[in-house]
Amino acid sequence: MKKHTAKRRGLGLEFKTFEGKSGDVYTVIRTTKGAFHVLVEIEAKRAARDCGSKKPNTRTAWKELWDSN
Fold first, then answer.
1. Three-class DSSP category at 41
2. DSSP code, position 15
3. Where are the alpha helices (DSSP H) in the chain?
4. d(CA 67, CA 15)
5. What single-letter DSSP state applies at residue 33?
6. How many angstroms from the chain centroid is the CA of residue 62?
7. How far, in Å, CA of 27 to CA of 15, rounded?
8. Is 64 exposed, middle or buried, given 0-12, 13-18 or 19+ CB atoms closer than 10 A?
9. Largest CA distance in the chain
10. Per-residue confidence at 22, pLDDT binned at 50, 70, 90?
11. Span 30-46, mean pLDDT?
């Protein structure tokens, strides 16, 4: 029988979302060392176009961008 090893502890990231007074939604990531990183949620299609995609729908736009990097 294969012996299982214990899972690592303390290496995960924590995520929470907050809605600002402006109505924007923020995704906040906290690292295990206490650092905070904040992302602003925007419409996916708008973000894809801002990144250079000309595709007509969100899924193909992001697939194109994802595969190009």
1. strand
2. E
3. 44-50, 58-68
4. 26
5. T
6. 13
7. 7
8. middle
9. 57
10. very high
11. 93
Band (32; pLDDT cuts 50, 70, 90) = confident
Which whole number is the average pLDDT over 40-58?
94
Distance CA 43, CA 20 (A): 16
Report the alpha-carbon distance of residue 43 to residue 37 in Å, rounded: 20
Output the pTM of the full model. Answer: 0.61
Residue 64 to residues 42, 47, 53, 67: CA-CA distances in angstroms? 19, 13, 7, 5
Q: Which residues of 25-55 are buried (b: 16+ CB within 10 A; e: fewer)?
A: eeeeeeeeeeeeeeeeeeeebebbeeeebee
Collapsing DSSP states into helix, strand and coil, what is residue 49?
helix
